[in-house]
Write a structure and sequence with these properties.
343 residues, alpha/beta, D-Maltodextrin-Binding Protein, domain 2, four-stranded mixed sheet, 14 helices, 47% helix, 16% strand, globular
């Protein structure tokens, strides 16, 4: 009942928005875009800002995108609903947060112990042999949302208060984790604890959790270097991914040539790589500051990574059962990993 009410309210909001023409002088249309991450985070400063510019340039300046921080237009929790209902035209989000609505989002965001570099993502998503982005788009389209492009978010190491050198070291510890990541942590013997990003610092300080997988940038942006003692690489997946999504009606309103420009594989790959490198640069700065602060780092051995991947396979299988698009995406992912000798 609550979900139905939310959908009704979002639909009424979108309908009322249509009473005010989005067209401005000179035939310019204004789109609203909300980011799930605040200014200061690379997903806002890099990914969202550059995505807005990409849309504006591809449309020849006929679409102007106004960027809003989290909560300005709707709660982060409701962002996927808001985009699907047309309340906002665009969003920069972490897909797996909405996997309950769009199951394939768990795959595109990065399942535990799968790809290990931006190069692998580029091949997996855009190489005609795999072309996984097409399956991802079909999954989002079923909810009236167009999946434009993934955003590489550096690495995803474990940031902990205790040393982690092996998979067995997680046993008995409380680690922040949700979705497929939480599933994997549970299989590794940890107690996965769902928690919003903004609450991580205090939870670590109070001992509510003892660690979290997260891009290193958070060591600076949320000052986690003050409450974390160890970093373990390579983490769950490298890189994890946020994404840019667009309301389907807004997407279809774009001229065919503009849509073609925005989905051109070369354009998307260049966008993905540039954003990923910019994100990584911030991670590297945060890591340097963390090491100077006294935080120690470890790198898991290949043997431990194999153990982690073996545990992860049952998680992948569970995700694959959620809907037909998840099944197709996981099948493509497994084929890719076998081709690369990862399985």
């Amino acid at each position: 009942m609550k979900k139905s009410l939310i959908v009704i309210l979002l639909t009424l909001f979108a309908a009322s928005a249509l009473l005010v023409s989005p067209c401005f002088a000179g035939g310019v249309t204004k789109w609203k875009m909300q980011c799930a991450y605040p200014p200061g985070d690379a997903t806002y400063d890099v990914h969202a800002v550059r995505a807005a510019k990409l849309i504006e340039e591809a449309s020849g300046g006929k679409i102007k995108v106004e960027l809003f921080p989290p909560g300005a237009l709707c709660s982060v929790k409701e962002m996927a609903n808001a985009v699907g209902a047309g309340m906002i035209e665009m969003a920069a989000i972490y897909g797996p947060r909405y996997a309950g609505r769009v199951p394939v989002a768990d795959v595109e965001g990065g399942l535990p112990f799968t790809w290990a570099s931006m190069n692998q993502v580029v091949e997996l998503f855009w190489d005609p042999k795999y072309n996984m982005i097409d399956t991802i788009r079909k999954g989002w389209a079923s909810k009236d949302i167009f999946y434009l492009v993934p955003n590489a978010c550096g690495s995803y190491p474990f940031l902990t208060k205790f040393p982690v050198k092996t998979i067995a070291d997680f046993k008995g510890h409380k680690i922040r984790g949700m979705g497929a990541s939480g599933e994997w942590l549970g299989k590794a013997g940890a107690s996965p604890t769902p928690l919003p990003g903004g609450e991580i610092y205090m939870a670590l300080k109070l001992g509510t959790i003892e660690g979290t997988p997260f891009p290193p940038m958070i060591l600076e942006t949320l000052k986690l270097k003050e409450v974390v003692d160890y970093i373990t690489f390579p983490g769950l997946v490298a890189p994890p991914q946020t994404c840019i999504v667009i309301n389907m009606d807004a997407w279809k309103s774009l001229p065919a040539d503009v849509r073609k420009k925005l989905t051109d594989a070369k354009t998307q790959i260049e966008f993905y790589r540039a954003n990923g490198e910019a994100y990584k640069a911030r991670d590297d700065e945060a890591l340097a500051a963390a090491y100077a602060y006294g935080i120690k780092s470890f790198t898991m051995s290949d043997e431990e990574l194999r153990k982690g991947r073996k545990l992860a396979q049952s998680v992948w299988e569970k995700v694959a059962k959620k809907d037909k698009y998840s099944k197709q995406a996981v099948e493509i992912l497994i084929k890719f990993m076998k081709d690369k000798g990862m399985l």
